[in-house]
Design a protein that fits this description.
CATH topology of the largest domain: Transferase(Phosphotransferase), domain 1
EC number: 2.7.11.1
Number of domains: 5
Catalytic activity: L-seryl-[protein] + ATP = O-phospho-L-seryl-[protein] + ADP + H(+); L-threonyl-[protein] + ATP = O-phospho-L-threonyl-[protein] + ADP + H(+)
Distance between the termini: 116 Å
Protein name: non-specific serine/threonine protein kinase
Keywords: ATP-binding, Kinase, Nucleotide-binding, Serine/threonine-protein kinase, Transferase
Organism: Promicromonospora soli
Radius of gyration: 47 Å
Strand order of the largest sheet: 1-2-3-4-6-5
Number of helices: 17
Oligomer: single chain
Length: about 650
């Protein structure tokens, strides 16, 4: 099923009935959550099962460490390595890395849960012989891109091999699996003692000789992987691991063109660069190796890119023989002394040709300088961000950037206009020139951000409703007001969203707030006496105040007008002032029926002196009559007597 088990065994089909019934873990529910369905692969350290995650309702791969490894002297080391795989892979967010979800313990079982990748692995694809150069380069591109993401975080994989490159069933997309040997570079770079772990066919010479491991060891393994994909065979073969390891330390990887006649010099140079025995002569990490790979790809003719490996013309026997006997000097004494197989006699010594060597050295320096300038400062250091990376799915955008020689990175944000999973924007934008070693940042839509509408908005006061909406992230609030006889002033009558609904946080929420009862219309009371006018207004719900004013036309003691005027609206309980005529100037105003104090004020404002008679003033009685009577002419400055009894 294309899931790596941390060893070299991967199957393409489901286990037989006999296998299922013989495995006691089939059908077991791990940690109350993961139901084991079938065994997928078994390796030296763990067995991988296909399982169903009941909580999230998805298929996952469950990697279970062999129980016997939990006991004995090496138990702690194996447990640490098993847990380190989870930490290493969980820290990587890359489309080319098999995701690790969780690690745990259930009784005596130690397990990891990870992404289930149905399909096959690169080993099977190599065996089938259907690999073309185009497909090989596409797979190597993703592998190096995934390793580049790991190297940036200071993580070395240490076990790159075909079994650890999985291929999705539907798309054929590669994913790097099994970070079980992975460690931080600072932890492993100076390791010189202990057991050398990893698959010997892909180990770097310095790892075999001294135990030293850094990002360049992963680059070497990818170089061996490329050789195997291009030729269908490994560069070094032997009767056992010791002979293979010895060949890695002492022998350069032969040119691929010697084993596949259609392959040209660019591929020889690519494999030579990735598999240089001196680590200082290799690309310093996977990101640099990725640039070398893409530069080589552009040099391959189209007609060669699509030739399947099994259809390629066979190499000449002389070329194969020359490649197999390309033995170079051994490393310093003391390395692999007890395990070295017999060596063929050295070729006859030849006098060095100084002139030729000098010219060769100058040519090599010129080529290296040109390559350095081209990739670091020249045109090869830049690429153009292609069109069509915005508004498409993240996967399509990533593939477009990779094909353009650029490395994508991503961030996610909510967006109500762009569907979930599509690219909102790219930085730098489409059509811009950008350095290959700097990532292009893609912003991926999470879809609209949703908020749950608070309950009972239509019974809240306006301020409380606003606060409740803002509290859940709904900040775009529009308020309108209308009169209501049923809802008190300031309370929400209606909301455009319902409590409990999930709505986008950028949605406009509309609230209708009560302005209280509708206003009352002031009636026409002009011409009425003050008492009758006041009774009419009070009966309609108004408060009434009086103001007197000289008027040449209106009879004394009649209402001239109201403030606000007739037909105007006044809120329930509002005040209406009646303006009462005092007649023309020099006419005694009508003060009968009002308090003594108010009558004094009115008469004084009309220009008269006031005298009070009667007992009513002592008991708070109002004015009973005046002398002269209201409406009579009296010169201003004269006295008006008011009677209270």
């Amino acid at each position: 099923m294309g899931v790596s088990s941390g060893a070299s065994v991967v199957t393409r089909t489901l286990p037989s009935v006999a296998q299922v019934t013989a495995d006691p873990l089939i059908g077991r529910l791990v940690d109350g959550r993961y139901e084991i369905v079938a065994r997928v692969a078994r390796g030296g350290m763990a067995t991988v099962y296909r399982a169903h995650d009941r909580r999230l309702n998805r298929e996952i791969a469950l990697k279970v460490m062999h129980p016997h490894l939990a006991d004995g002297e090496q138990a702690a080391s194996f447990r640490q390595r098993f847990e380190r795989e989870a930490r290493s892979a969980a820290g990587l967010q890359h489309h080319g890395v098999v995701a690790v979800y969780d690690q745990g313990t259930d009784a005596d079982m130690r397990y990891l849960t990870m992404e289930y990748v149905p399909g096959t692995n690169l080993r099977q694809l190599i065996r089938d012989g259907d690999l073309t150069l185009r497909r090989s380069f596409a797979i190597l591109d993703v592998v190096l891109s995934a390793l580049a993401a790991a190297h940036v975080k200071g993580i070395v994989h240490r076990d790159i091999k075909p079994e650890n490159v999985l291929l999705e069933e539907a798309t054929g997309r590669p994913k790097v699996a099994d970070f079980g040997l992975a460690r931080a570079i600072s932890e492993v770079s100076n390791t010189t003692t202990g057991t050398v772990l990893g698959t010997v066919a892909y180990l770097a010479p310095e790892t075999i000789s001294t135990g030293h491991v850094d990002a360049r060891a992963d680059v070497y393994a990818v170089g061996i992987l490329a050789f195997e994909m291009f030729t269908g065979r490994l560069p070094h073969e032997g009767e056992g691991p010791i002979q293979v390891a010895f060949a890695h330390v002492n022998t350069d990887v032969p040119p691929v063109s010697a084993f596949a006649g259609h392959l040209g010099r660019p591929l020889d140079l690519l494999v030579r660069a990735l598999t240089a025995r001196d680590p200082d002569r290799r690309p310093r990490d996977a990101a640099v190796a990725l640039d070398v790979l893409r530069s080589t790809f552009r040099q391959i003719p189209n007609e060669v890119l699509d030739i399947p490996a099994k259809a390629a013309p066979p190499p000449s026997s002389a070329a194969v023989k020359a490649a197999r006997t390309a033995v170079v000097e051994r490393p310093p004494a003391g390395v692999w002394v007890a395990q070295q197989p017999p060596q063929p006699p050295p070729p006859p010594a030849r006098r060095p040709r100084r002139g030729g060597k000098l010219l060769l050295a100058v040519a090599v320096v010129a080529v290296l300088f040109s390559a350095w300038w081209y990739t670091e400062h020249g045109p090869g250091a830049y690429a153009v961000v292609p069109d069509g990376v915005v508004g498409v799915s993240a996967e399509q955008a990533n593939e477009a950037l990779i094909q353009a020689g650029l490395t994508p990175s991503s961030a996610k944000q909510y967006d109500s206009d762009v569907p979930e999973g599509d690219v909102v924007s790219a930085d730098p934008g489409e059509g811009q020139r950008w350095k290959r070693d700097e990532p292009v940042r893609l912003v991926i839509s999470l879809g609209p951000e949703l908020a749950e509408v608070p309950a009972d908005l239509d019974s809240m006061r306006e301020r409380a409703a606003r606060a409740a909406l803002r509290g859940v992230g709904l900040t775009d609030i529009k308020v309108s007001r209308e009169y209501s006889s049923d809802v008190v002033r300031g309370e929400v009558i209606w909301a455009s969203v319902r409590g409990g609904d999930m709505v986008p946080t950028d949605e406009t929420v509309r609230l209708t707030v009560s302005s209280g009862p509708p206003p009352l219309t002031v009636p026409d009371v002009t011409g009425l006496g003050p008492a009758d006018a006041a009774d009419t207004l009070v009966g309609m719900g108004f408060e009434v105040e009086r103001k007197d004013k000289f008027d040449d036309l209106a009879p004394v003691g009649t209402v001239i007008k109201t403030e606000p005027g007739t037909g105007k609206g006044v809120k329930d309980g509002g005040t209406v002032t009646i303006v009462v005529s005092m007649g023309p100037k020099g006419t005694v105003p009508d003060v009968v029926g009002i308090s003594v104090e108010d009558a004094k004020k009115v008469l004084k404002e009309a220009g008269y002196k006031v005298e009070v008679r009667g007992f009513g003033e002592l008991f708070g009685e109002g004015v009973q009559e005046t002398e002269p009577a209201a409406g009579e002419l009296l010169k201003q400055g004269e006295s008006v007597t008011i009677w209270t009894w």
